[in-house]
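JOB MANIFEST
job_type = single_chain_structure
chain_count = 1
residues = 78
[input]
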Amino acid sequence: MKLNVKYFGMIAEWAGSENGQLDFSGTSVAELRCEIEKRIPGLNSASYQIAVNHVVAANEAIITLGDEIAILPPFAGG
């Protein structure tokens, strides 16, 4: 399935874009994480989260066609 992926912060810089499309044959967030780490240099050693439909998702979460995917860098606040 083709997923539309949004990248934020330093991850967008590493990906070279804020938006992308990814051919994905897996079903889980863990599988997506592996696929994205293959495509974006440096991401496998970074701390980041994956959100599915505006909710930070656990690795076991299932991804379906039409889900909105966001790759989020660490956030700092105060």
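[summary]
The chain has two helices and five strands.
The domain at 2-72 is CATH 3.10.20.30 (Ubiquitin-like (UB roll)).
exit_status = 0
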